[in-house]
Write a structure and sequence with these properties.
Strand content: 15-25%
Order of helices and strands: HHEEHEEHEHHHEHEEHEEHHEE
Helix content: 55-70%
Number of helices: 11
Number of domains: 3
Structural class: alpha+beta
CATH superfamily of the largest domain: Histidine kinase-like ATPase, C-terminal domain
Strand order of the largest sheet: 2-1-5-4-3
Number of strands: 12
CATH topology of the largest domain: Heat Shock Protein 90
Shape: rod-shaped
Distance between the termini: 37 Å
CATH architecture of the largest domain: 2-Layer Sandwich
Radius of gyration: 53 Å
Largest sheet: 5 strands, antiparallel
Length: 480
């Protein structure tokens, strides 16, 4: 990661320097050529006036004008060509084209009254043309007085063409480029050092986080990580610490579950052993006492069997939805079957079991798992109820969910306990639960079955007044 950060910093920092160098050189060249062109235009305009005033086109032997032409051409390291009205070259400061005819687009446009200028970057020169204007004669002025403007009264008798070398501009650009390259080198060194140090500073907190996570992974520590260099690393550490907290809770829950399983399985076995040892230690045990002890042993075996069956049910509930046997089930009939089985048990305590259905409901559910869930809820309502009490089951639905409420007027659940009742082996009143044969797994099994149906369960309870469980499950099973 450090190398990637280093590379990003170098690229992001150095590219602007390259673009700046290119922009400076381009801007300098454009400005230098513009200034040279403007300077040449002024000189050639003055020169064209001198040529016209001295009738140079008809008398090119003027030493003053020739000296001026030579001076200007040397000053700008260029060449001046004077062309008459017949496209003949009257004067060439290079002295190689005099007397020849010149035909070019620039010259033709200049004879039409257009000044031209161009910059040839490849061959390093600037070229301009300027017309030589001669005032019309008095007779011509009288003839054209009503037909032309003042500019049209001047007659173009020739053209001055001047070309100037831009080698000195190129030399300056090269020198400026060399200096810019030197600055770029210094900037590059600075950027590399800065990127190296910055990448180290940026990666250091991540390395510390990685090392801390490695310690946790290897089991050297379970403490929360504390690294607070940057806001981003704080977010990562906070998320990791929260994950560690959840894992710690899961691990503690697992250890507690194993401990509870061991305890719950051991308790009936211990009771059986005590009863058996009591029988074995006595001689001539009365038949009545023997039978009493055997009844107690049978009860403990039955309790052991219930715990094992509940554990197996809970394991099956923990499996994925691939084990769900979904089919369309008549929920009214399902609840009627559950209540029919439980009513004889409730009758022993004179508890009335009531079923109220608002409407007929059919839903896509796993009948076995849902039967187990509702059976546990109704059985709890009977087990933890008083004599002459009631358990009321209500069924209702809307267009998306069906709702089952199991209400009783039993002993209720303290407020402090309601958040824990769905935990495995959790009992509100352990002594009372053992008396009535509870294993502490019924509500955990019910909750798992309901969640597997993408449903939800809520409990509302008032101590000594009763408890209401509300179950809400989709009518149509949602596959994942």
């Amino acid at each position: 990661m450090r190398f990637r950060i280093f590379l990003i910093i170098v690229i992001v920092s150095y590219i602007p320097a390259i673009l700046l160098r290119y922009g400076i050189l381009q801007n300098y060249e454009k400005r230098a050529v513009s200034l040279r062109t403007a300077e040449l235009e002024n000189q050639v305009m003055i020169l064209a006036d001198h040529l016209a005033n001295n009738n140079f086109l008809t008398d090119p032997a003027s030493e003053t004008v020739n000296a001026e032409l030579l001076q200007i051409s040397n000053l700008y390291d260029g060449r001046i060509i004077v062309i008459d009205g017949y496209n003949n070259i009257v004067k060439d400061t290079y002295g190689i084209s005099e007397g020849k005819t010149i035909i070019s687009r620039e010259v033709m446009e200049c004879f039409q009254g257009k000044n031209t200028s161009s910059y040839d970057k490849e061959n390093s020169f600037i070229e301009l043309t300027k017309p030589i204007l001669v005032s019309a004669s008095p007779e011509d002025e009288m003839f054209e007085e009503e037909e032309g403007t003042a500019e049209e009264k001047n007659k173009i008798t020739g053209v001055v063409l001047i070309s100037s070398s831009t080698d000195n501009i190129n030399a300056n650009i090269e020198e400026l480029g060399n200096r810019a390259s030197m600055m770029q080198t210094l900037i590059a060194l600075f950027v590399i050092v800065f990127a190296y140090l910055s990448s180290g500073l940026l990666v250091r907190p991540l390395n510390r986080v990685t090392a801390a996570i490695g310690d946790v992974k290897d089991g050297f520590t379970t403490d929360a990580i504390e690294v607070s260099d940057y806001l981003e690393t704080e977010h990562i550490i906070t998320a990791f610490n929260e994950l560690m907290g959840r894992m710690r809770i899961i691990d503690e829950s697992r250890q507690e579950f194993v401990s509870n399983v061991s305890h719950e399985l051991k308790t009936p076995i211990t009771s059986i052993k005590v009863l058996a040892d009591s029988l074995n230690s006595q001689e001539d045990v009365p038949v009545e006492l023997y039978r009493e002890f055997m009844v107690d042993i049978a009860d403990e075996i039955e309790r052991e069997n219930k715990i094992i069956n509940d554990l197996l049910s809970l394991v099956r509930m923990d499996k994925t939805s691939a084990d769900m046997n979904i089919e369309s089930v008549d929920i009214n009939a399902l609840l009627e079957r559950i209540l029919k089985r439980i009513r004889p048990i409730a009758a022993q305590k004179d508890i009335e079991v009531i079923f109220e259905s608002v409407r007929e409901v059919k839903a896509e559910v796993d009948e076995v798992k849902l039967t187990l869930a509702f059976s546990n809820l109704v059985e709890n309502g009977v087990k933890y109820n008083r004599e002459h009490g009631f358990v009321k089951v209500t069924l209702d639905s809307d267009h998306q969910f069906f709702t089952v409420t199991v209400e009783d007027n039993g002993i209720g659940i303290p407020d402090a306990e309601t958040d824990h009742i769905f935990e495995r082996f959790y009992r509100v009143d352990k002594s009372h639960s053992r008396e009535i044969g509870g294993t502490g797994l019924g509500l955990a099994i019910a909750r798992s079955a309901i969640i597997m149906h993408r449903g939800a369960i809520r409990v509302d309870s008032v101590e000594e007044k009763g408890t209401t469980f509300t179950v809400k499950i989709p009518l149509t099973y949602v596959y994942q």
